[in-house]
């Protein structure tokens, strides 16, 4: 009887030395995601150890299955690249099957594509065999599962793994990834509806089946809960996917993920959305995420922005909307320029305009005080508006009736007081080149009309503080200056300045110029007043927008869809934000405090200097990381007279507060300090003695001995909640001492301790190795009657290290010698261990105020960052760069020091005295994102993820 033939949807090839668990999980996930709950798997996936029957010809059987398979999924790793069997499977596929059905899932190593060579970048790629060189006609699909494999989290409830499975499953099913996600959610909703139907049916038989009805209702609630969790995870995955390219959508998806069900995935989505929107002040207008509206061969939909130099007013318009496809020019419906008062954060009355021209470069300009606005409209005129009165004051036309040719727009400049307006435009006559008009806006009369600038294009114009017009010709380096009142010109040339056309940007005040197309091939920043080159840098790949604010330390540039801030040395300071399409218009206040940007798809966002994840805190005394005590309670500074000044260090608004000084100099290890809540008393342990001081007067209040003089006390001293009892580790005991009498009121077993920020929870560590027993921790709670009471049973710990305890005493963190963080749940004894921050330089971590997160600092100087972990799972939530200065001595490795903030979050003390506050709690993340966007999802997206499960809007009021 001939063998029956059938097709396989996919064949999985992997390293048996390393990736068996991952391959198993992929097979299971591909068969389960989107599967109707009443049916068998909808895809057939071959994996050798589960799909083969016993065979004497193992190799032949595998090759037969390869021939039957529609898709090849290669679990890529250096180990797989070296595997003989994997190599033979890949070679067979390359020779016999289509490469557009070859999918890659990276479990280890590096993969990179070289667009110019149209092949993998083999200098960086480590997880592919040589047989794959030149195997693809175009870039193949691959997903990165490195983090998933390291975390060993192979559940479809985990957003990263679920997202990867959906990406791989989409081509197998002939669907988009969104359609796969939608189908999965639809199946879950089907289960919910069926259970609801069961509830309704059973309710009719309530008298005889009350128990069964109650069970069905419970099952219905469980099904709804599962559906909400599933929707939360899917929304979180979308938020993580959108964060690098569309922060506005990432914020909305993250907010709805958290609203559907608070999970570790939704926490990560919130954190990543905050990072993506770190410097976003407001998402003014959402985009269409596509460019498909054209009004001619050179025109796409326009979106333009302008900001007044005093930072008071934002103006913007866009012709990308739902009705744009239906409109012809002249427009049949009214167009508006929208205005926003940046000082009070409220919209101003919109200005009705005739519309804007077809070439896509229409100019929009505000005067310095935001009182006058100039816009180019579609019938080749300039409209001049009084912003405060929302009144059109002038309509200006050039001498020959046209301000531009068919495809090239007008460039305007306004004097600071709005008195003078200049415009450079192209003549409609062939070969005439650029022309200049200048108007007196008080009367509307022209000062200069149709003056020829020659055939060279790219002239840049600006007004200085005295109202003089500066006109620069980049190709020659010539600068002409016009005094409008006298209509007199002067000319000078910048020695050494040469630039190609269309490549030079001049600041609004006319004092700086940046050319990206110099004869040297480098970017060059020039001081036009002094005629000297300020900085030179390597050219960027493609500036889509560039701007020089009056602030001489800042440059705003968009490289494609990414908007960044650069310093006066052309070095990147920070990324302000990203869009889903290229940025085509940027504007900024004179000091660079406000930056607005518009994308070609209609998106408009406003950016500021204030970080959404935190802010810079005043540090007038310049307290540095090295001056913070190891437990992060106080700051100390040695004085020249031998005394020591003492500060509290946890205020997130005012920074360090000096308590006073005591006449002792700490020159050795073995001491620790603690202060009362009001800072009026300071306790000091030193060589077996406990003393109490008044820092305001420098006088000693009391002293008592608790141990031997040779005993070196670890960093383990704190006042308890009543400010009269202290707890400290001394020799082999943990002591509770009443500082008023010096009496030891309680002895606890332990060798090391840690105290929560609120001074009410205490953890002790007992070393059991001397008795061949494991080390154990115990958690205690201050009862308020002069004693601490143990809460929960002691938990065993495997590694020795530094201890921290959360405020509520529910979790304990232990940082080992490798700076890895183990987080212990006190109630269950369950321990999770993080992978450890990159280049951690401190063995200290901080719990968030709600005990849900843990933060650890890593790196030094410009590489320093704050790593935030989920305290329940150990999963990473966010890595926030701290943007600190490089150390003065490059050989030093001084790490920033983190301190729990009294208002929640953490304070980061840098080696140079910079003090930053960072928010690490979920609730403030939600508030920050709601301030940017109402968070509402389009109806289509809401129905895809949340239909029938009753999730309300996350941002109310």
Automatic annotation (TrEMBL):
SMART domains: WD40. PROSITE patterns: WD_REPEATS_2 (PS50082). WD repeats lie at residues 364-395. The chain crosses the membrane at residues 195-217. The keyword Protein biosynthesis does not apply. Gene3D superfamilies: Toll/interleukin-1 receptor homology (TIR) domain (3.40.50.10140), YVTN repeat-like/Quinoprotein amine dehydrogenase (2.130.10.10). Residues 11-105 form the TIR domain. It comes from the Bacteria. Keywords: Membrane, Repeat, Transmembrane, Transmembrane helix, WD repeat. It holds the Pfam family TIR_2. This is TIR domain-containing protein. It comes from Streptomyces spororaveus.
């Amino acid at each position: 009887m001939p063998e029956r033939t059938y097709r396989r949807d996919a064949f999985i090839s992997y390293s048996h030395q390393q990736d068996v668990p991952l391959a198993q999980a992929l097979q299971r996930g591909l068969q389960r995601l989107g599967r109707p709950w009443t049916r068998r798997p909808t895809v057939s996936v071959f994996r050798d150890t589960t799909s083969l029957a016993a065979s004497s010809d193992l190799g032949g059987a595998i090759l037969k299955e390869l021939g039957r398979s529609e898709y090849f999924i290669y679990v890529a790793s250096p180990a797989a690249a070296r595997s003989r069997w994997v190599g033979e499977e890949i070679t067979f596929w390359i020779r016999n099957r289509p490469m557009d059905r070859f999918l890659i899932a990276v479990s280890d190593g590096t993969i990179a594509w070289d667009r110019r060579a149209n092949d993998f970048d083999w200098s960086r790629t480590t997880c592919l065999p040589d047989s794959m060189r030149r195997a693809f006609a175009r870039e193949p699909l691959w997903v990165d599962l490195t983090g998933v494999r390291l975390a060993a989290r192979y559940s479809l409830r985990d957003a990263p793994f679920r997202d990867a499975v959906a990406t791989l499953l989409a081509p197998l099913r002939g669907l988009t990834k969104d359609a796969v996600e939608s189908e999965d959610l639809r199946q879950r909703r089907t289960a919910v509806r069926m259970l609801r139907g069961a509830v309704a049916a059973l309710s009719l038989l309530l008298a005889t089946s009350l128990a069964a009805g109650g069970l069905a209702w419970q099952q219905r609630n469980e099904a709804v809960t599962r559906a909400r969790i599933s929707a939360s995870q899917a929304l979180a995955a979308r938020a993580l996917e959108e964060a690098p390219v569309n922060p506005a959508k990432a914020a909305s998806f993250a907010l709805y993920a958290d609203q559907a069900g608070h999970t570790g995935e939704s926490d990560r989505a919130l954190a990543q959305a905050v990072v993506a929107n770190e410097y976003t002040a407001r998402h003014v207008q959402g985009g269409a995420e596509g460019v498909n509206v054209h009004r001619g061969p050179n025109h796409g939909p326009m979106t333009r922005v302008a900001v007044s130099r005093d930072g008071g007013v934002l103006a913007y318009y866009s012709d990308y909307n739902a009705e744009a496809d239906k409109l012809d020019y002249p427009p049949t419906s009214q167009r508006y320029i929208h205005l926003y008062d940046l000082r009070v954060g409220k919209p101003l009355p919109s200005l009705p305009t005739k519309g804007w021209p077809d070439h896509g470069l229409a100019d929009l300009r505000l005067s310095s005080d935001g009182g006058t606005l100039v816009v180019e409209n579609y019938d080749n005129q300039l409209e001049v508006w009084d912003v405060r009165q929302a009144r059109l004051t002038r309509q200006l036309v050039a001498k020959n009736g046209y301000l531009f040719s068919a495809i090239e727009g007008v460039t305007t400049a306004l004097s600071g007081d709005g008195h003078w307006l200049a415009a450079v435009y192209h003549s409609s006559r062939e070969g005439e080149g650029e022309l200049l008009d200048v108007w007196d806006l008080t009367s509307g009369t022209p000062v200069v009309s149709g003056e020829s600038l020659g055939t060279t294009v790219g002239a840049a114009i600006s007004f200085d503080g005295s109202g003089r017009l500066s006109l620069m010709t980049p190709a020659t380096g010539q600068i002409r200056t016009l005094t409008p009142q006298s209509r007199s010109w002067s000319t000078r040339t910048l020695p050494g300045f040469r630039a190609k056309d269309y490549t030079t940007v001049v600041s609004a005040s006319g004092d700086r110029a940046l050319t990206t197309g110099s004869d040297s091939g480098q970017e060059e920043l020039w001081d036009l007043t002094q005629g000297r080159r300020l900085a030179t840098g390597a050219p960027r790949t493609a500036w889509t927008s560039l701007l020089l604010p009056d602030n001489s330390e800042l440059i705003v540039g968009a490289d494609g869809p990414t908007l960044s801030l650069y310093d006066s040395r052309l070095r990147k300071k920070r990324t302000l934000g990203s869009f889903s399409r290229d940025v085509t218009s940027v504007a900024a206040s004179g000091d660079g405090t406000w930056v607005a940007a518009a994308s070609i798809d209609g998106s408009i966002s406003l950016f500021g200097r204030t970080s959404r994840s935190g802010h810079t805190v005043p540090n007038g005394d310049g307290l540095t990381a090295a001056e913070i005590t190891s437990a992060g309670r106080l700051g100390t500074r040695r004085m020249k007279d031998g005394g020591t000044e003492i500060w509290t260090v946890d205020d997130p608004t005012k920074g360090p507060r000096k308590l006073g000084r005591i006449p002792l100099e700490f020159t050795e290890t073995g001491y620790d300090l603690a202060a009362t809540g009001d800072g009026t008393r300071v306790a000091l342990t030193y060589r077996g003695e406990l003393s109490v001081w008044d820092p305001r007067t420098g006088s000693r209040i009391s002293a008592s001995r608790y141990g031997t003089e040779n005993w070196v006390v670890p960093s383990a001293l704190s006042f308890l909640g009543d400010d009269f009892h202290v707890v400290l580790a001394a020799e082999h005991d943990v002591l509770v001492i009443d500082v008023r009498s010096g009496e030891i009121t309680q002895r606890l077993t332990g060798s090391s301790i840690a105290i929560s920020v609120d001074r009410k929870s205490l953890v002790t560590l007992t070393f059991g190795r001397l008795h061949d027993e494991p080390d154990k921790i115990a958690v205690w709670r201050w009862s308020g009657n002069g004693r601490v009471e143990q809460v929960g049973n002691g938990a065993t710990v495997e590694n020795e290290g530094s201890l921290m305890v959360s405020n509520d005493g529910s979790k304990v963190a232990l940082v080992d010698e490798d700076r890895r963080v183990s987080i212990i749940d006190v109630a269950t004894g369950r321990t999770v261990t993080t992978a450890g921050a990159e280049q951690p330089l401190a063995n200290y971590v901080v719990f968030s105020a709600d005990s849900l997160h843990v933060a650890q600092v890593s790196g030094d100087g410009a590489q320093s960052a704050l790593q935030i972990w989920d305290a329940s799972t150990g999963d990473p939530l966010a890595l926030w760069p701290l943007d600190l200065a490089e150390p003065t001595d490059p050989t030093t490795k001084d790490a920033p020091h983190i301190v729990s903030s009294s208002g929640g979050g953490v304070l980061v003390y840098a080696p140079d005295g910079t003090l930053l506050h960072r928010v690490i709690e979920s609730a403030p993340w939600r508030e920050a994102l709601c301030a940017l966007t109402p968070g509402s999802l389009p109806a289509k997206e809401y129905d895809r993820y949340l239909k029938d499960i009753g999730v309300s809007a996350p941002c109310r009021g």
